[in-house]
Each structure stands twice: as C-alpha cells, then as structure tokens.
Amino acid sequence: MNCLKKIILVPCLIATVFSFSQNRTSENKIGFWLEDEAGLPCFNYVGNLPFKCKTPSGLDVKIPEDPYFLLGNYRLTLFSHVSGEYELITGQRDWGRLNQGDDPNSGLNSSSIDVLNSNHETITGYQLTGMNSVATDASKCKRIFGTGFAKYQYSLDKISCSRVISVKPSSTPYNGLSAFLLTVKIKNNSSKTINLVYNESVTANYETMQQHGLETKDKKVKYVNTVSYDPNLNILKADIIGSSDDPLQFPTKESNSLYDGYPPSLFFKALSKTTVLKEIDEGTRNKFTSQTTLSLLPNEEKKLEFIVGYAFENSFSDIDKICQGMQEINPFLVNKVSKDKFISEAAFTNDWFKILPKLVNETDKTLKQEMIWHAYTLEAMATYNDFYKEVIIPQGTLYDYDWGIRASARDNFQHALPLIYSNPALAKSVLKYMMKRIAPNGEVKLEEGGYGFSSSRCYFTSDQQLYFFLLISEYLRITKDYDFLLETSEYYPAHNMPKVTGIDVIEKTFTYLRDEVGVGSHGLIKLLNSDWSDAVYYIKNVQYNRVLFLGESHMNSAMAISIMANLIPILENVKTLPEFSTSEKQLNNLSKSMTMFRTGVLNAFMKDLGDRTFPRRMYFNRKAYGEENMFLEPQGFTLQIPELAVERKRTLYEEMKKRVYKGEKLGARQQQTPEFDDPAFDYGSREDGGFWYALNGPVICGVAEFDKPEALKLLKMMSFDNFAKCYPNYWSSYWSASDNIESCLIPTEGLADQTTFHWTFPVFCAHPHAWLLYCYYKIKE
Q: Could you tell me the pTM of the whole model?
C-alpha cells in the first residue's frame, strides 16, 4: 500500500508510458497515441495477445485477454478487438449482438488469405482474425484504432494486407447508418505473380444482452433466422424473428415490454462482383461467407470492399439504401497531411473531423487531444431509441453491454452534461429522452430494459430529480434555449399520454422531491434506500421498513442547494420574457416554492455543518456517518454552495487533500477510511473507498469556482494521460475506464473491481469521458 505517501496533486511521471502524443519508447508494452491525417487521436496497440499481466504484488489481473475499442454512431455500436474480431451490437430496441460468439461479450467473424499454387491448391494459409491469428503478433500486424476506424496492417511474407473498418458518424440525433465499411487492400511484394483467395465471413447469431449468459432452457425468447440472397445486389441477409411461449411477452411490435421479439436483420454485402457469397447453415446460426479469387502481378495491389450491418426496415431495397450511404465516402485529403501523421485511409475521417470539437484555443496538445477523444467516445456511445424516438448516452460497461439495461437515470443525466458545449442538439435529445422516462407524479424511472420497459425495481431512490435539475439548469444556462421549457413532451410510458411542457415536468419532479422524498428530522433531504450510493441498500443488515423514511442524505442536500441556486434564477428570468406570458404565474409559483424549499434545506445544512470543516455523509439507522471519517459524496457539491464563504471552501478543500486525496494517483477516493463491513466489498473498492469519476467531477467543478489553476491540476490528475502513466501495465488504463477504480487502499489499485465477474467489461463507461470533458469546459468558461 502507498496510502502514506505525500498527497499528489500533479500527474505522476513514469518515463515508460506515453501520453496523448507521438512520443514512443521501446519499453511500452501496451501502446501509444498518434494523430491521423486529420489530426484526430488514434491509438497504436503494440502488445501481443493474449493479454496477461500481474499486479505489483503478484496477483493475476482479471482483464479480457483480447482488448477492444469502440466504434459507433447513434444507430450502431461496434466493438473492434485487437485480434480483429468484432461485436456487432444494436441498442435501438433492445441491447443485443447480431453475431454473438460462443463466449459472453464476444462476436463471430473471420478473415483469411489462402495462397494458391498453379493448380489452385492452397500452399499457405494466413488467418487474419481471432486469437490464433497473425493479428495477435505485433511483429506481423500493426493495429491502430481511432475516431471511427480500426486499421489492421499485416506483413505476410511476400504479401502485405490492410483491413480498415470505417464507421460513419451521425450528423443529427435522428440519423445514422447501422453498418460499417470494410476496406481490404492486398499487395504482392514479390517479383512473381501470386494467386490467392481472400475469405471474409460473419455469423448471424442474434442474442440479447439479457440472455447471452443463460442456458437455452432458461431463455424467455428464442430467435430464429430466415436467410435470403439478392444476387443483383450481392447481399446476404438474415431476418431474425423472436418467439416466446408467453403470448403477452411482447404482444405487438409497438408494445413496451421487458423482452423484445423484433430484432433487426443482419446483412452482408460484397461490393466486388467477383466476390462469391455463400451461406452455411450451422443449426441455430448461419455463417455468411465470401470468397474472392485474385491474381496479383509483381508489386500490384487490389482492393476489396464489404459492408456489414443490420436493418430494422429489412427489405433488400431498404438495406441497399444503407449500403449506398456507406459508399458515399469522405476521407480526409491526404495531400494536406504532414509527414508525422498516421494515414488511416478511413472512409469517413472528414465527417468525424467536422462534428468533433476543434478546441483551437487549447495550447496543451496532450490535453486537447484527450478531450477530443472523450467527445468522440460519447458520440460513438450515443444510441437512438426507437421507443422514445430520441438519443441517450448509455452508461455502457456492465449495465448496457453485459446486462442489457439502460441504467441508471442519474448516470444518463450526467453523461449529457458536456454535450451542452460540444453538441447541444444531442444534449437536447437526451433531455427529451429522459423526460419521457418520468412518471406523471414526477418519479424518474431508474432504469430501462427491453423495448421501452422502465422501472425503479427495488430502488426507492432519493436523488434522480436532482440530476435532472442539474442537466436542465446547465442546458438552459449555457445554450439560452429557454423555448425548450415550452416544448411539449409526454410522461412515461410516453405513448398516448397527454402533452406537457418542460415547465410542467420541472414542477412535477420538484413536488415529488419535496413531498415524496421530503426532508427528515434534521431538515435534510431524505436518503430513502439509496441516493448516489446504493451501498447501504446492499451492505447494511437492517430492517428497511424501520429506517427507509428516517435516513437523511448530506449529498442530496448539498446537491439541491447548489443546483437550485442556478435553476431558480433561470426560472425567474424566463417568466419576464414575452413568450412566457401565459406561463408567468406557473413559473412564479414554481420559483417561489423552490426558493422556500431550498432555503429550508440550506438553513438545516448550515446548522448541521456548524463549525465543522466538512459535512457529514448521512444519517442512517440512527447513526451519523462521516463524523470523523470523511466521505467524498457531499464534498463536491458543498464546494458549489454560493452561501458558503470562499475561505471555508478553501479550508474544506485542504481537509480533503489530507483525508481523501492522500496516497491517491487519480483523485479523491470515496471514503477516507472504509467502514462498510460486507463480503461483497473489499476495503478500498467501489462504494467502500474506491475512486469514482462521478464524485471527483463535482469536486473539480467546485474548486474551479474559486481556483481555476488548481481545478486544472485536478483535471489533469484525473485524465487518461495520467491514468496510463500511473498504471502502465493494464490496457484498461489507456483509452477508456470503468465508472470506478480500486484505490490505493487495495493491492489491485488502478483496476476495475477484481472480486467478481465485473471484470468482464472493465472499460467503455460514459462516466469518465463525460466528467472529464464537462470539467474541462467548466474550467475554460
């Protein structure tokens, strides 16, 4: 353990690791960052597969052996593995894989080259994808992953080959092509003619995330393929139909239901007329294969193109429209590129360049490139939902990509915060989506599964409304799109519900917070069975019927005080605008009631704080948590309370550095000294003392209000650049991260939770990308 080290407030320095720059040293075993022809960040993975490593104490690290990167737009999610395998994922109706592999979180596809002799017999075969392929060998395959592309460059004796997967970005919240373009180039580097066959395949095997780990007998829905082929378009497709023994599992295609019986169709198109497509029936799944015979003269290069995707409008003509859009390529002009750039040859680089933020005023190149990467990742994660007709930024990681649920609402609100700056139209769509998850009484539905099926399950949460207030107040403050308050929406379940305005939704969620959640005996907002942290729900062996309405949350209270300090003046301002004349009374009543509520909570919070240097964490089970042991949860929002004097904020921050930053490399841990005692939580892990982006982000925003240089130091401390420098041996330290990381209090420091199956999806959570980018914009305001 290194908890006793002096507090670090600047990035740690390890010479063997690479930042978002083009510098490289031979010691790095993972990879390094480059810039592509457009100046956008891309990562060169230099390690061999399978990936294996140990902690400094000698423990085996639980990280997938085949690292993966995310490509995507609002209609497509694609995980491209270092091995060349890919997972083709849809989230438009339900989360599912179109090419589900034999193992969880895997896909089925294959690429190979067979070199022929004069009798057209195979004399040498090269497997290009998979854990037994040349892609696993860094000396034979260069693997680079960037904004909207994955490129594999093979050196195969007398042949060189490149495979480039290109995904086109969405340009509005309501478009996007659910396919990718695969461009293959094969060159003969010898002095003799070479004859060969190029093989490409993908397997139609649909399964939802909810079911992919279940035995066949336990699955609620079975999926069957019907395969057809159009020789004129050279397209193979598998129409996928779901069936269930229960006739009310999904009565109609439009019914909201926990399970979905109407997945899209998988299609596979070869653009070359000489490519022969075939289908191999493998029982419950169907393998789409292609063969292209080529004859290459000395130094000759030939190109092949394939389009792989899925379609909900699944006629061949509808699929062909998607394919036509994929052929409208827009590469970045290479003649403008300096020699130090990596030439990706991706088909849609210029499209990505147009939609991503430029950050032209940022002089720190490393910081600039990382923030562009965060913006890209959020764009790639964003997913259009057919039920709500809007886009959401999923949490990703386990929730969406493993369990198949969109959760939780508080997270979805947070993920949209930086979009207010980088893509306001997308932020607005997320807001509209989440407002449709709100019930008529103001309850924010916690999660969603299947097709538009939202529920709070066992959680009686107390904070969801506060995160809604955070997002909408920031959206209005930054965009000045006040007319959004007059736009109409519908309460959950959104279909055939009365139209309500944004003002109505704010009013209902506020009265829910005031009356349904309410305040406790100390005047603080109640905890119920969980606020941001659901640890008390799982860990404490108490009778909830006796404590559910007695607990109080200092985090909820600090949030309400600081967020309403921004929201109330906005409501006061808009009621004076001419277009709000008919809503003036409603706005006046709302702002007055909010002010009364906030004043009461503020007075109670300040009284409870007294002359303490930091607020307590909560009152729960007749005990005050955080008397001497600092919890991070309320601190960030306390730093944002306008009525708290700046000197007291500085004192609080100094106390935080002594208590929860001590020994940590990325930021403050969740508890100074972990005190939850339960087998499910290791001390220093998750809600028992782990590092969380969602808790450190508000701290940076709070510090930025009185010390921007210090806030920038904290941002750089939390950056991926610093993450990789501090934990260089784990691939999960470089291009994405989980929502929480083990703290310095535990031997698995720097990793995602290592105790259970959680390691199966250690990266591509929206939390780190959203909070790092949002904090950057806040600091730069």
A: 0.95
